[in-house]
């Protein structure tokens, strides 16, 4: 894939991670874009970054890490655009996309029918599986019966796990950090969430907790169906969607996506192929 020199990013986030100013890659004067599509600001690709590793994290001093910090700069360079990262919480990111204030969303967004009604959704970039993290090695929804389970509020897992095991057995937290803190203290028995996120957390914390991915189960489709991270975009910008799909196809074929996954600790083949492959 054609690559252009990347100078770097400087992004200053507010304490609420709601705003960002950035100076980004310098595009050569003779750059020829692989695609033609409009952007919110001429010459700039504005990215709403929902901060959650291993997908993406933008630090206050502008350091960007994660899977998307490899893939989206590649896309921007091939489109002859600078890239501006804007850290936003999930609901704010959806609003920014639907209102045309940013171009693309980053941060491991699962494709869902509900999201598809308000934003455009690309082809699948990689695959994720819901998982349980615990000190006891719980492997199934049934094994969580009668246990205290931690989940991040507002996540795709909150409503279905409450339905499966009962509200009284589910403890809702503001962040995945809080889930791990309560698990370490013994105040909850397990946490439920993205397998990629839980695996990353266990690794970076040097935790002895066990992460067990959930196999698809027809009884609990919302809790066990594989997730398909993609790059959402403003729904009306179909040219951008087509360009992203072209990039994703090439990046999967030439190994760029697989390399980005492995560099961020996701070496299991299922993250690239999907658990059913």
TrEMBL record:
Residues in Solute-binding protein family 3/N-terminal domain copies: 44-268
Signal sequence coordinates: 1-19
Pfam families, alphabetized: SBP_bac_3
Membrane-spanning parts: none
Keyword Signal: yes
Keywords: Signal
Coiled-coil annotated residue ranges, if any: none
Source taxon at top rank: Bacteria
UniProt-listed InterPro entries: Solute-binding_3/MltF_N (IPR001638)
KW Transport (keyword) present: no
Region (Disordered): 208-235
PANTHER family, sorted: ARGININE-BINDING EXTRACELLULAR PROTEIN ARTP (PTHR35936:SF17), MEMBRANE-BOUND LYTIC MUREIN TRANSGLYCOSYLASE F (PTHR35936)
The protein, known as: Putative amino acid ABC transporter substrate-binding protein
UniProt source species: Gordonia rhizosphera NBRC 16068
């Amino acid at each position: 894939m054609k690559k252009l020199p990347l100078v770097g990013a400087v992004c200053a986030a507010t304490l609420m991670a709601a705003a960002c100013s950035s100076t980004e890659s310098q595009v050569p004067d003779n750059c020829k874009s692989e695609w033609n599509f409009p952007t919110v600001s001429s010459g700039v690709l504005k990215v709403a970054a929902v901060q959650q590793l291993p997908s993406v994290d933008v630090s206050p001093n502008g350091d960007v890490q994660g899977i998307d910090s490899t893939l989206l700069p590649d896309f921007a360079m091939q489109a002859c655009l600078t890239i501006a990262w804007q850290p936003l919480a999930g609901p704010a990111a959806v609003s920014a996309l639907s209102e045309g204030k940013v171009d693309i969303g980053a941060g491991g967004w699962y494709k869902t029918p509900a999201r598809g009604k308000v934003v455009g959704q690309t082809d699948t970039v990689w695959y994720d599986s819901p998982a349980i993290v615990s000190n006891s090695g719980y492997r199934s929804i049934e094994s969580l019966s009668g246990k205290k389970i931690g989940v991040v509020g507002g996540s795709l897992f909150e409503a279905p796990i409450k339905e499966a095991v009962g509200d009284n057995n589910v403890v809702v937290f503001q962040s995945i950090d809080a889930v791990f803190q309560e698990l370490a203290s013994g105040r909850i028995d397990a946490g439920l969430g993205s397998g990629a996120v839980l695996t990353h957390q266990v690794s970076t914390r040097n935790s002895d907790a066990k992460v067990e991915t959930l196999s698809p189960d027809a009884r609990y489709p919302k809790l066990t169906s594989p997730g398909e991270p993609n790059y959402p975009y403003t729904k009306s910008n179909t040219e951008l969607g087509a360009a992203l799909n072209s990039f994703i196809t090439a990046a999967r074929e030439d190994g760029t996506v697989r390399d980005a996954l492995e560099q961020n600790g996701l070496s299991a083949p299922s993250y690239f192929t999907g658990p059913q492959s």
